[in-house]
Design a protein that fits this description.
The chain is mostly beta strands. The chain has one helix at 2-20, and strands at 34-39, 48-49, 51-56, 65-72, 79-85, 100-105, 114-123, 129-140. A hairpin with a 5-residue loop joins strand 7 (114-123) and strand 8. The longest helix has 19 residues, at 2-20. Residues 1-22 have low confidence and may be disordered. It comes from Lysobacter firmicutimachus.
Length: 143
């Protein structure tokens, strides 16, 4: 009897784990699309979805630096990407039709310390469209 209770408990926990897991990206599905970002420093920078930040100190990064943005949550497919800088409502130079974009970012002492990009993702096979955005912050940790 103990074995069957353990088996039932294990099966229930497995089903719960499957139900709680986020759905994987599927080809042609833009519903889970998001934008991750990081500010490039001399450290091992890890992309974060939606909002990212870094702190500048002498010898830790360049100022200005680069904020890198990338579309996540879409599977292999046929997509078009249109990037927009929400701070000045223009298309960032050099981004084009790519799932990633990079822009120059200054710290909050030498500039506004932030970059916000939005991307419109279009599935060219189904016509599905989704917009996603992220904001990078770059703080001056020296002054």
């Amino acid at each position: 009897m103990q074995t069957s209770k353990t088996w039932v408990l294990g099966a229930a926990l497995s089903l719960f784990a499957l139900a709680a897991a986020p759905s994987p990206a599927r080809a042609g599905d833009v519903s889970n699309a998001a934008v991750s970002c990081f500010v490039d420093t001399y450290a091992f920078d890890v992309p974060e979805v939606g909002t990212c930040s870094s702190i500048w100190r002498p010898g830790s990064a360049d100022n200005p630096s680069t904020a890198l943005f990338q579309v996540t949550g879409v599977g292999a497919g046929n997509y078009a990407y249109a990037w927009r800088n929400l701070e000045n409502n223009t298309a960032p130079a050099g981004c084009g039709n790519a799932p990633y974009c990079q822009v120059t970012i200054y710290t909050d002492v030498y500039g506004d310390g932030q970059a916000t990009l939005q991307v419109t993702i279009t599935d060219l096979d189904t016509g599905a469209v989704r917009q996603a955005q992220a904001t990078a912050f770059y703080y001056d940790g020296f002054t």
